[in-house]
Amino acid sequence: MGSFSESMNEYKQQLTIGAIQEAYRGLMEYFRDLRAHFKNKYPQYSVSGSIYYGYMDMTYFSLFPESVKRRKLKIATVFVHDTFRFEVWLSGSNRTVQSEYWKLLKESDWNKYHLTSTPKRADYVIDHILVNNPDFGDLDSLTRQIERGTLEFITDVEGFLSKLSN
Asked: Which DSSP symbol is given to 54?
């Protein structure tokens, strides 16, 4: 990539085409609807009051199952823009909590999901790809894929965390 000035000229040129604004608006509307879907269908989970829209790097909202929330953890449903995929993350409320759970996972024999290599710099402890290259032509199907994968991830994480309590 060139200089900031060159990048801004390219940005301006792309904005005049109009497709980027339309796509971004559609993605943010879908994400808003996805968050509402989880909030309405799963009242047993606290759902973040807002969506993190990001800097065209990632967009996410958080779910807080009680068993996760009491440990200062959260589940994030994320769209990663550069890889163009949906992921689900186990994240800490801060880097200290995140590092603590990273160490517990690293020392355990549970390796069902990808463990970050940099807990103090990453935004997650573990992550999982939900949908690679999503089909935005069938939003109902996409929502079902994300929902199914997120719920399975939550169940697996809760199972691991319950073993820590024993």
From this structure: T
